[in-house]
Amino acid sequence: MSAWVPGDLSGLLIPVGSHALRARAEEFLTLAMRSSGALAADNRVVGINQFEDWPGGSTGRKLLLAVDYEKRQLAATCAGRARRLPSGLSAELSAELFVKITA
User: Fold this and answer.
1) Which domain holds residue 26?
2) 60: left (phi over 0), alpha (psi -120 to 50) or beta
3) Strand order in the sheet with 61-69
4) Count of Cβ atoms closer than 10 Å to residue 91 Cβ
5) Chain segment 15-46, per-residue pLDDT in tens
6) Distance of CA 47 to the CA centre of its chain
7) What is the DSSP string of 31-57?
8) Helices (H), the chain
9) pTM for the whole thing?
10) What are 49-56's contacts with CB under 8 Å, separation 24+?
11) d(CA 63, CA 53)
12) How many domains does the chain have?
């Protein structure tokens, strides 16, 4: 089996296991977050500070990641529309990410 498979919705190559993700985490997270609209086209993930197994849950492997971005602010638009945040929410991207993978 390949370490990367195409995603059903995005067509983006998705890592099958944690080793594949670790090898290309910055590149993959940048592409995935841009594809979802969470990360602006002029922003990127520039570092992974934490890459740890998360023990909870029943099926699939889970990871806790801590990442650095070139710029911490959210994209101003999502899917071509202006982004409006509910009162009290931060306009900064979260540095902590929870990841569930198949292997």
Assistant:
1) 4-101
2) left
3) 45-54, 61-69, 96-101
4) 10
5) 988 999 999 999 999 999 988 888 888 899 99
6) 12
7) HHHHHHTSS-TT--EEEEEEEEEE--S
8) 18-23, 25-36
9) 0.81
10) 49/95, 51/18, 51/22, 51/25, 53/18, 54/98
11) 5
12) 1
Q: Which 8-state DSSP code applies to residue 23?
A: H
CA distance 27 to 5: 15
Mean pLDDT of the chain: 84
CA dihedral 31, 34, 36, 38 (to 10 degrees): 130
Do residues 17 and 99 make contact, with C-beta atoms less than 8 angstroms apart?
Answer: no
Closest CA to 19 of 58, 49, 63, 57: 63
* Tokens at 3, concatenated: 């370490």
Mind listing the pLDDT tens digit for each residue in 54-64? 888 777 889 99
